[in-house]
Amino acid sequence: MKNIGVYEKLRDELAPKEVNLPDEPQIAGALGAAIIAKKHVAVQTN
User: Which residue among 17, 20, 21, 22 sits deepest, i.e. has the most Cβ atoms within 10 Å of its Cβ?
Assistant: First the structure.
């Protein structure tokens, strides 16, 4: 894991689901963007 901070934040956001990220940081960035988009859509629809 290249960035343990990103891993820990994703783990916290996705809990209780297991987070298994490869060493490539692009994957972690894409997951982070998906989480932000999901929250944004949830705010707009409520």
Answer: 21
